[in-house]
Amino acid sequence: MPATDPSDDLALLVAAAREAAVIACGFRAPQVWDKPDEGGPVCEADLAVDAMLRERLGAARPDYGWLSEETADAPERLQAERIFIVDPIDGTRAYLEGSRDWAHSLAVAENGRITGACVLLPQRDLLYTATLGGGAFLNGAPIRASAETDPARATLLGPRLAMSPEHWLGGEVPPLRRAFRSALAWRLCLLAEARFDAMLTIRPTWEWDIAAGSLILSEAGGTATDQRGAELGFNKPHPQSDGVLAGGALHDVLLPLLAASPVSPPT
C-alpha cells in the first residue's frame, strides 16, 4: 500500500468530523433505539453520521479498513494495513439529553498503531488533533499532559465503579478526587490538556472509544494502557481492551496500586 502522510489523513479526518457536526447538530428529536444486550442507546443521528463518514472516508481512502461503533463488524478489516476507527457520536446519552459533552472521534491506525486522530466537540467548539510524532493540539495550540504525581492533589476521571475498594490493592483507594465526563474520547483529551490528571475504566473498552484520544494523550506526553499496564493495540480481532488506565505522570504512580495490575506496588 502506498505510504500516506499522516498529516494528509488528519486533514481528511478533520474535514469529515466538521461535516459530521453539521449532521448531528441538525437533528432536533431523533428517533432512539436500545442496542441489544444493554449496549446503550443509538439514534438516527448516530446512524446518519456513520453513513456519511463511511462514504466520505471510504471514497478518499478505498484501501483502508473500517471499524465503527455503528457499523456491523466485518473480518475484512483485519487484512487492511491501515484502518479508520470511528465513533460517530461518542456520548450518545449526553447528546440525547441536550448536553454539550459529546464528540465525534475519528482515527487512523496503521498495523495496529494510531497514526492520526481528531476529536471534535462541536457544541463546545473544541477540536483536538494529533499525528504520530507530530504533537497534540487543541484548536491549533499545543497541549501537554499533567506532571502531577501526588494522588492527594490529583483528580481522576471515571465512574464511581473505578473508586471501589475491590479494584485497588488491599482495598486501599488512593486519595483522589473523582470527576466524570460522558465521552471517553473527551476524557482522554482532557488529560492531554492537563485539565485532569488520570482516567480509569474498569470494564472492557471498545477501540472506537479510545483510538483517537489515546494518540492525542500520548502525543501530549501522557500514557494510556489497559488496566494491567499492557500497551493498547488496535484493529484486533475482538476490538476491546481490558479497561483503560490513562494519565500524565500519574499513570505510572497509579498502575502498581491497581488490583488488576501484575506490577508490584512500590515499596
Automatic annotation (TrEMBL):
Its EC number is 3.1.3.25. It holds the Pfam family Inositol_P. InterPro entries: Inositol_monophosphatase-like, Inositol_monophosphatase_CS. Keywords: Hydrolase, Magnesium, Metal-binding. It comes from Limimaricola soesokkakensis. GO terms for biological process: inositol metabolic process; phosphatidylinositol phosphate biosynthetic process; signal transduction. This is Inositol-1-monophosphatase. It comes from the Bacteria. Mg(2+) 1 binds at residues 69, 87, 89, 209.
